[in-house]
């Protein structure tokens, strides 16, 4: 049983958020952090590409940003090392991947062991990867949702921290379903990260207990 973060009363947890797109989950965290009682601050936002709205959101909020593109490095492992060192430089208590479309390697996972989480738009283990809502529609499920989990070396295979169910409607399009999931996903992310930073969490095998 490992306690991933030692809570110090009144401590403001340091969050680094990783993105690749619009950053609405990032914005939800930024907005939540505006309340000192939430117990966290977004100290940096990182991306694998530039020209995305999520970086604009961070800049509007006065949050430092960085971009590391895989193609700018000689090897994927060099990119992974750069991600690891840049993120470590911000001394995060928790690294939150929210629409970050790159798998991070062993070096990153070891450095932030038990403190790297990801929000995904399906009810894992169903529909991992980058097409969660589309795969749910194609399969014909009646319920899907969002999952917050601890990242491991697999693709969306880490221990589940929280899940929220979202109905699939008969007339759903990919767009309507994706947005309905996002509404629930953002609330889950804010509520669960807040509970984690204020009350800590522990991992017992495949189970994660918050608070
Ligand atoms: N070590 C891990 N890193 C990440 C995980 C994880 O579970 N373990 N989750 C992802 C987020 N994610 C789904 O939630 C996800 C993101 C990206 C991919 C993927 O196949 N990426 C490809 C490139 C895709 C592209 O650039 O278009 C890749 O990394 O080569 C799968 C799942 C965050 N990181
Ligand atoms: N598996 C990776 C993946 O597809 N992640 C998904 O990208 C979206 C980002 O939205 P946002 O940029 O508006 O926060 C989120 O819905 C997240 O689940």
UniProtKB/TrEMBL annotation:
Catalyses which reaction(s): N(1)-(5-phospho-beta-D-ribosyl)glycinamide + (6R)-10-formyltetrahydrofolate = N(2)-formyl-N(1)-(5-phospho-beta-D-ribosyl)glycinamide + (6S)-5,6,7,8-tetrahydrofolate + H(+)
UniProt lineage: Bacteria, Bacillati, Actinomycetota, Actinomycetes, Glycomycetales
Cited InterPro entries: Formyl_transf_N, Formyl_transf_N_sf, GART
Sites marked Raises pKa of active site His: 156
Formyl transferase N-terminal domain: residues covered: 14-192
Protein name: Phosphoribosylglycinamide formyltransferase
NCBIfam families xrefs: PurN (TIGR00639)
Protein family according to the UniProt entry: Belongs to the GART family.
Binding-site residues, (6R)-10-formyltetrahydrofolate: 76, 101-104, 118
Active site: 120
Record's keyword annotation contains Transferase: yes
Organism: Stackebrandtia endophytica
Amino-acid positions noted as binding N(1)-(5-phospho-beta-D-ribosyl)glycinamide in the UniProt annotation, renumbered to this chain: 23-25
Record field: transmembrane: none
Keywords associated with the record: Purine biosynthesis, Transferase
Role this protein plays: Catalyzes the transfer of a formyl group from 10-formyltetrahydrofolate to 5-phospho-ribosyl-glycinamide (GAR), producing 5-phospho-ribosyl-N-formylglycinamide (FGAR) and tetrahydrofolate.
GO biological process: 'de novo' IMP biosynthetic process
EC number: 2.1.2.2
HAMAP family assigned: PurN
Annotated GO CC locations: cytosol
